[in-house]
Amino acid sequence: MKTPTKKARLAAAQAVIDRNSVGRPFSADDVREMNDLCGTDYTTFTRRRNAAYPTDPRHLHADGGPFSWNKAITQPHPLTDVYRAQRAAIAPLMHDFMEETDQTQCASCDSTKDLTVDHTPSFKSIADAFIAEHGTPTLHHREDGAGWVLRDDTEAAWVPFHQSRVTLLQVLCRSCNASKGARA
């Protein structure tokens, strides 16, 4: 089953909250549904009035304390910075591939605009395999302060690991590449 998008999970959470009255604990089914949507494990949810924001119709308490269901759903994946650093480390390889290939259009739709490099297996599966084998990389800020990079020793292990796992690189437009990832 495909994981619902953040937008769909937000809408579903709003529906759960809206069907519950202010001051009354959620039913067991609604608690289960909110936990599934938010990735949490609370035993109770209660809709409350928010004194600081009286117009907030969906203020929640979970297990007796304030709870930001919106943040729980929209927070970035904990490995987002690691994935970005891993992508940055292999960016020169991807650039070299684009320069050396004779593919000048998307392998899926023949577009010639906004071309990207697609991995088989997926970048994420290769990155996750590296993390499983080597542990979560320690990052440090780039010298220019614009983001995170892998430590030199980690990058020295990651780049050949990535190269050894890739079975196919192909050119896809950004749209086809993104839709391929959504189907994976």
Q: Spans of 5+ residues with little confidence (pLDDT < 50)?
A: none
Strand order of the largest sheet: 1-2-3
- Indicate the overall shape: elongated
Q: Kindly, what is the distance between the CA atoms of the first and last residues, rounded to a whole number of angstroms?
A: 11 Å
**Roughly what percent helix?**
40-55%
> Total helix count?
7
Number of strands: 7
Oligomer: single chain
SSE string, helix = H, strand = E? HHEEEHHEHEEHEH
Description:
- Helix content is 47%, strand content 16%.
- It is of the alpha+beta class and 184 residues long.
- The chain folds into two domains: 6-74, no CATH class; 80-183, no CATH class.
- The relative contact order is 0.12.
- The mean pLDDT is 90.
Strand and helix layout:
Blueprint: H1 6-18, H2 28-38, E1 45-48, E2 59-62, E3 65-67, H3 69-74, H4 80-100, E4 115-120, H5 123-134, E5 139-141, E6 148-150, H6 152-165, E7 168-173, H7 174-183
Antiparallel strand pairs: 1-2, 2-3, 4-7, 5-6
Helix pairs in contact: 1-2, 5-6
Tags for this model:
184 residues; alpha+beta; 2 domains; 16% strand; elongated
Concise synopsis of the structure shown:
The protein has 184 residues and is α+β, with helices and mostly antiparallel strands.
